[in-house]
Amino acid sequence: MNKIRLTVAVLVLAVYCCIASPISAAGPAQNRVYQTPPVSIGKVLFGQVQPAQQVDPQKFYHKVWQLVKDNFLYQGRLSDWNKWEHKYDGRLTTFADAERAIYDMLDSLGDDYTFYKNRVMTKAEAQEDDEKNVVSYKMLPGNIGYIKIATFGSKHTSDEVKAALTSLSSADAYVLDLRDNGGGYVLEALKIFSLFVDQGKFTSLKGYYEGKPYDEEVTVTATEIEDNENGKITKAAREPNMTGNKPVIVLVNGDSASASEMLSGALRDNKRAELLGTQTYGKGIAQNTFELDGGTSMQITFARFYPPCGSNFHGVGLTPTYVVKQPLGRQDVQFQEAVKVLLKKLGR
User: Which of 211, 297, 301, 347 lies at a CB distance of 3.0 to 4.6 Å from 38, suitable for a disulfide?
Assistant: First the structure.
């Protein structure tokens, strides 16, 4: 599964704050979106980064220009992209010059999710990847298991959900709380999807990658994960279903975004869960992260993603099965309503 674009190695679906980024976006924050832990992050961690002063500024700038040309979803916005290729010829003498030119160039795309990550940002993301204790859980009265996932942006998220489900194995039903979860690695969301289903389609993507149209579909079968990428099928081991067919309610709100929406939509469309809360954020586009010289990286919007049975919801969000608003300063009425729905399903 070395190329499952939502994958294993390249993608993050998230809405996170960008450190030192010239780009801003409304919403839960700005994104780390569909990403892969780029190889450059590993170089930062293990001290193999090429010092910035050894990077050829002109070549560095041109590499970014080429990556956008070959991988940007909105090809219509590149009608005058060629003018940027040689705009700074002979004027980039330092690494800082190249970075300023890159910010200027990328800003012209009008896409908040395509941006350059300097060394500070790239290293900070590597540290976030290793964050622990991002999942909390407890057994509720009525024998209902409650699991709260704060982020999919940690490589430990799915393992912590497995531990939670192991502890809550005697539960008769589950509340999966994805409220205020801005997303993270799709691979983590995919693994968690496997923990709740016998089999089912997880998501599909349509976009532009490596200079040509891109089409991908990811499905969890009874025995494995199957990734169909432009007609090429790759298979990998899956996580077991740890929840059987027990009822599940997924809590969502306006800050449930990206990978949270992908998981919610997949569970809903496979009739494995119902959603409760308010309309989700609406981030239905995916980004790839590319390693660059000097311990830096960048992410580029390359595809739209789709839930199994629905249309792309970018800018729209997912509508819950049960629309329940949360009044400010009040008890958690969404949580209370989720418990009521589950108890009713259990005949109590």
Answer: 297
